[in-house]
C-alpha cells in the first residue's frame, strides 16, 4: 500500500461540479465521461498506473473510483476530490473487499503514509504490521483485513516477485507495480539475498 500524493482538484472536475449539482455518486452514472476522466487523471497524475492498496498495475478499464470514506456512510464526501482514488476491481480484495466498511483505524493513503504502519514478510510475501503492539499495530491489522491485502493471489505474486528479484535488487526501478515492496527489498537487500 502506498501514499497517494493528491494534486489540487483539477479544473475540469471543479467546473463539472459547478455545472451539475449532483446529490449522490449514483447520479454520476449518467456522466460516464467525467468518471473516466477522473480515473485517467488520478491514474496518470497521482498513482503511476497502480492501485494504491495492492500496488498492482491497473488502467482505466481495470479500475474503479474508490471512495476512501465510503459514500454510503459519508454522503457529504461523495465528490470530495481528496476522498477519491482509483483502485483495482479485483474480486475479494482492495475496494471490493472494503466495500462500505469503515473504521477510524483504517489507514487513509491520502492523509497517512502506509509505509509507517506496514512492512513485508519476505518468506511469505504477506503484508504485516510494522509494529507489534499499539495503535499503529491496530491500524495496520484493520487495514490489512479490510482490504484483504494478504489474499493468497497477492501474497503469492509478492513472494514470486521477491524470489525473482532477490539477486537483482540494485537494478529495480522504483516506479510501477509493488513500489513499496521494491523499496523494502532495497532497504533489506542483505537479508533478502540469503532467502
Protein described:
With 195 residues, the protein is mostly helical. The chain is built from 7 helices and 4 strands. It has a two-stranded antiparallel sheet with strand order 1-2. A two-stranded antiparallel sheet has the order 3-4. It is globular and about 60 Å long.
Summarize the structure.
With 195 residues, the chain is mainly α.
Radius of gyration: 17 Å
Output the strand order for the largest sheet.
1-2
What percent of the residues sit in helical stretches (DSSP H or I)?
Answer: 25-40%
Largest sheet report: 2 strands, antiparallel
Number of helices: 7
Average pLDDT confidence is 94
Q: How many individual β-strands?
A: 4
Order of helices and strands: HHEEHEEHHHH
- How large a portion of the residues is in β-strands, by DSSP E? 5-15%
Looking at this protein, list some descriptive labels.
195 residues, globular
What's the structural blueprint in terms of helices and strands?
Blueprint: H1 11-19, H2 32-45, E1 63-67, E2 84-88, H3 94-98, E3 118-120, E4 127-129, H4 134-147, H5 152-165, H6 179-187, H7 189-193
Antiparallel strand pairs: 1-2, 3-4
